[in-house]
Design goal:
Blueprint (H helix, E strand, L loop, with lengths): L2 H9 L44 H19 L6 H8 L6 E2 H12 L3 H14 L2 E3 L4 E4 L1 H22 L4 H24 L1
Length: 190
């Protein structure tokens, strides 16, 4: 996967509950919601019928397409989207269970109990394990499935994102991050 797609997968990680592309674009996200969002609004050669501004509809369509890419890659893994995000976000150093659950709940807007259910399912499937120090870490099988899903997503994501200039991708990332931050603020105050 090229560096531009890795950058976008992290930077555009501002929209979308699950996503989806958390990891389909390369690495686990250090901060910010899962990458799933719309870059469709930032194309250099916009179709004649495309809207002239970013709208929730455009973001939603892009997110649904990202979700479809992920769903295809998850076939045969026995994981659903929630389990994928929990596992993918655990790649790297072992993570403290409660902190991981709270982080994923915050990134996705899911209830902590839903994230806990996904953690328990991954433990039962042998894709996550508890370390002797009470942390969670992916097993060898978990790391293998993450690599498989990421690779399957990457081909489609790379092709789609390569149709957009790095400058437009950076602009889309900033716009989506700002919109998501404002929505998160509104949700916490409303």
């Amino acid at each position: 996967m090229n560096g531009r797609t890795s950058f976008v997968a992290v930077s555009v990680s501002s929209i979308g509950a699950a996503l989806l592309l958390t990891g389909c674009g390369g690495t686990a996200i250090e901060a910010g919601p899962p990458a799933s969002s719309a870059v469709a609004a930032a194309t250099t050669a916009r179709p004649a019928s495309a809207p002239s501004t970013l709208t929730p509809s455009i973001i939603g369509r892009a997110e649904k397409h990202h979700a479809a890419v992920l769903a295809r890659a998850l076939i045969g893994t026995t994981m659903d989207e929630k389990q994928w995000i929990v596992l993918n976000q655990a790649i790297g150093e072992p993570v403290e269970r409660a902190a991981h659950i709270n982080r994923i709940a915050g990134l996705t807007q899911w209830a902590p109990a839903e994230v806990e259910t996904a953690v328990n399912a991954l433990l039962a499937k042998g894709l996550l394990a508890n370390t002797p120090h009470g942390r969670l870490e992916p097993t060898t099988a978990g790391k293998t499935v993450v690599g498989k899903v990421r690779a399957e997503c990457a081909a489609i994501v790379d092709a789609a994102y390569s149709a957009v200039t790095p400058e437009d991708l950076a602009t889309a990332a900033r716009v989506l991050a700002t919109i998501t931050t404002r929505m998160a603020d509104e949700l916490t105050h409303g």
